[in-house]
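pls design
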């Protein structure tokens, strides 16, 4: 008797998770006019959610280290959250402000850093710090160029929102630092 369990394909979990999460706005649309998603909203959200889930699955599939898996999840969630907020309402002014396109540099820093470091904890720690620095540079540029006054965002809002994301990237870096230390001690 064959007791070996069949393994689901790598994309199954992110696909199912994406479908379940997208059911939330779909169901909400049936009961309230406050949620009004278009087909493109579902496609974009689905792409972001599935891409994030698949990335997590591929990066962590060979690691049994729970703290590393948590650090990857935290870093990916932070990146996804940055994209989501920026696309939904914008970080500087509204989502239509071209200045918000600069935040894609933060995401590209993470992607490039991840591949260059081969997703190793020490390299990911440095990547997360680089993302925090990039976020800081964009916030300072927004403040120095007068984006706060021009786009309806107060100085406090720009500092608070960017500070929130900077903090999340620093926490992710700290998780990778801890993971690197634990692996070094073994």
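designed seq:
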């Amino acid at each position: 008797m064959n007791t070996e369990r069949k393994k689901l394909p790598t994309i199954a979990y992110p696909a199912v998770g994406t479908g379940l999460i997208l059911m939330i706005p779909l169901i909400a649309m049936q009961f309230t006019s406050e949620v009004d998603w278009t087909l493109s909203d579902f496609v974009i959200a689905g792409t972001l959610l599935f891409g994030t889930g698949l990335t997590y699955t591929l990066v962590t599939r060979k690691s049994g280290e729970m703290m590393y898996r948590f650090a990857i999840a935290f870093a990916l969630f932070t990146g996804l959250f940055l994209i989501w907020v920026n696309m939904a309402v914008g970080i500087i002014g509204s989502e239509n402000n071209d200045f918000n396109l600069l935040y894609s540099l933060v995401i590209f820093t993470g992607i490039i850093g991840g591949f260059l470091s081969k997703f190793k904890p020490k390299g990911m720690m440095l990547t997360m710090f680089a993302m925090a620095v990039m976020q800081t540079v964009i916030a300072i540029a927004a403040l120095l160029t007068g984006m706060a006054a021009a786009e309806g965002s107060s100085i406090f809002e720009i500092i608070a929102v960017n500070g929130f994301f900077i903090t999340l990237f620093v926490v992710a870096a700290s998780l990778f630092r801890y993971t690197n230390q634990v692996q070094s001690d073994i």
